[in-house]
Design goal:
Largest sheet: 5 strands, parallel
Strand content: 15-25%
Strand order of the largest sheet: 2-1-3-4-5
Number of helices: 8
CATH architecture of the largest domain: 3-Layer(aba) Sandwich
Helix content: 25-40%
Radius of gyration: 22 Å
Oligomer: single chain
Distance between the termini: 41 Å
CATH topology of the largest domain: Rossmann fold
Structural class: alpha/beta
């Protein structure tokens, strides 16, 4: 079974207009573990593709006289690392090299065997990075609202109404770690791994300092925080609605 991009389903975006290919793919991936989405051209694919949510792309590079190939180049230039396999009727060695140089993870000539496609798709997904560096922008278009704030993880942007609230990389990484686990009490060790990718030393108080700085930004009264609350003996919890922590 293919590894899903979300806990239960693989979101597979097919960019192809060949009826035979589409029929084969629908027959192969018509099970509950896969959400198959079809775009007949690149403009439609651009509307449907969401980096971080699309589990993998199957793309005909020859669409609209090479528009598919150019879109692959654009994705990679934009640091979009979504696993991508090209499916093409062009089967020469030169065509394959051009496709791989454009940024495809693999290249499969039509007609293809469904079992081979499945094996190649599984392989490229295993090679794909599954985690983000702590301070990196989110790969998906995540926006978290709490109180008067809007936290856009893809843009690394925090706003209070129309006003931008500047964040350092460390502050962004800490708020990202907390906001992605609403209502979950996180230990200092867990926060250290989520926000910095490493453990804190036994006498390192920088995590608490960062929390204090975030509270000064977010809270009306930092001494009685609503959003980033202390869980005594454990660590901290993010409460997006600002209710009292039990």
């Amino acid at each position: 079974m293919l590894e899903p991009s979300e806990p239960s389903r693989l979101r597979l975006l097919v960019v192809d207009d060949d009826p035979t290919t589409l029929a084969q793919l629908r027959a192969e991936f018509s099970h509950a573990a896969t959400e198959l989405i079809v775009a007949a051209d690149v403009p439609a694919a651009q509307r449907l593709h969401v980096p971080g949510r699309t589990g993998a792309l199957l793309l005909d590079p020859a669409l609209n006289q090479g528009e598919g190939l150019e879109w692959c180049r654009m994705l990679r230039a934009a640091q979009d690392s979504t696993p991508l396999i090209m499916l093409s009727a062009k089967a020469t060695e030169v065509d394959r090299i051009v496709g791989l140089e454009a940024g495809a993870d693999d290249y499969l000539a039509k007609p293809f065997h469904s079992r081979e496609l499945r094996a190649r798709l599984q392989a490229v997904m295993r090679r794909s990075p599954t985690t983000e560096p702590p301070g990196a922008p989110s790969r998906s278009a995540e926006v978290i609202h709490f109180g008067p704030f809007e936290f856009n993880l893809q843009r690394r942007e925090l706003r209070k109404g129309p006003q931008a609230v500047p964040l350092t990389t460390g502050e962004y990484a800490m708020l990202k770690a907390l906001a992605r686990h609403p209502g979950q009490a996180l230990t200092r060790e867990q926060l250290a791994q989520l926000a910095r990718g490493r453990a804190f030393g036994p006498y390192d108080r920088s995590l608490d300092v960062q929390v204090s700085r975030l509270r000064r930004m977010l809270e009306e009264d930092p001494t009685h925080p609503r959003f980033i609350q202390t869980v005594w003996g454990v660590g901290y919890v993010f409460v997006p609605d600002g209710s009292a922590n039990p």
